[in-house]
Amino acid sequence: MSTFKRFFKDTIIYGIAAVLPKAINVLLVRLHTSSLTTSEYSVNTSFYVWAAYFNILLTYGMETAFFRFFNSEKEKGKVVSTAFISILTTSIVALIGLQLFSDAIATFLGFSKPLYFSLLVWISILDTLIVIPFAYLRVKGLSKNYTLFRVLNIGIYAFFNLFFLWYLPKNFYSLPNILESIYQPNFKEGYIFIANLIASAVTFLCVLPLIIKFDFSFDKFLFKKMIRYAWPILIAGLAYTTNENLDKLLLEDWLGKDIMGAYAGAYKIGVIMSLFIMAFRLGAEPFFFNQADKKNAKTSYAIILKWFVIIGVVFVVSIVAYIDFIASIFLGSDEYFMALSIVPIILIANLFLGIYNNLSIWYKLTDKTRFGMYISVIGAVITIAMLFILIPKIGFIGAAWATVTAYGSMLLISYLLGRKFYPVPYDIKRISLYLLLCIGISSISFMHFKGAFLINTAFIISLIGLIAFLEQKELRRFIK
Q1: How many other C-beta atoms lie within 10 A of the C-beta of residue 368?
Q2: Where are the domains of the chain?
Q3: Which helix (H) or strand (E) holds 182?
């Protein structure tokens, strides 16, 4: 079990890099929802929806292609330099084009202030330029360096959020003249974006010494192979971003900024599950590729998925069990509580997404990444169709149901295709049992025992006890 111990050790280290920034972002929800009205919070949400699209477009699947070819090519230095030069070139072209037509694009995307769009462009470019250096740190096993940079990034972002949204407003009348003349109380959401820009700039400067050490040689033949591998991932990424974010854009247009802001605030609680998923993915992705040529690789993948589901199920049930308490911590204003009913649904949706990410290893290892594109596009089509059908009929809750349906469908399609092209002996019976228990317990807890601390605690203890009983043999092997 030494392989698994190493895997879980890396996952813990990467977990700090993934979970801590996400956790701090979740904690900042309280600051944001206390400082911003639901309408202002919708502006903040829209900004980061477009940031997600820009991130996918500017990286165009090159990060995953980097992992794939770094582990298969003999001249690994060429993989690093080719990937980075590709990203650098397209980033410079994008920066020039977006700045030349910034006013027109900002208006088209619905930005009320052109300055916000300019901030978005610079943040996106800086974040794109660190993708390959960060991927290099991960693939070389330099997890501590990677974690240090990630923690530094979120630390700077959090500091300036507190400075702009808490310290300055609280001490406005006692500020030095220079700060009082610069600070604008009505620019609240804008300061969040400025904090992000500062954090992104500092992080880029931190990895710049590593970038300088890259061997700047561009292999056209290698680039063609990488881009053929990467472009389906680009399409899949756009489809995934649509699954995650289109609901917010449509809610703003159809139901107004206040409803969208409340929905987005409650949604932040639902994606607490993404903390676990992100940590797991950062450790799992390099591990999956490194284990691909091992004799027992498929058995390892099966065991990892089952335990991902087990831990995920406990996460979901625990959050739903204490939803009132958690909401009171993270949501700073009662106007956000109106959308709390979406949380259990979004938690299940994110669990489905995490399972899909694990299942997707079959098309990444067999170089059939186009299937990832097909599946994600199908998910996006389901999302769009259900949003247009459900939101007009049942309001914002329809957006949550669209998300869980899309991810559930993607999970099922990927599993069925994986059985044909790269069969892995997943313990489907046990995984299905845990998912049914998760959905059942969460539904009963939220609908009938919301706020009942003792009963919900009993649910969690019973679930963990059942899992320990069913998995006792494997647990003993892990402990040894």
Answers
A1: 16
A2: 2-479
A3: helix 177-182
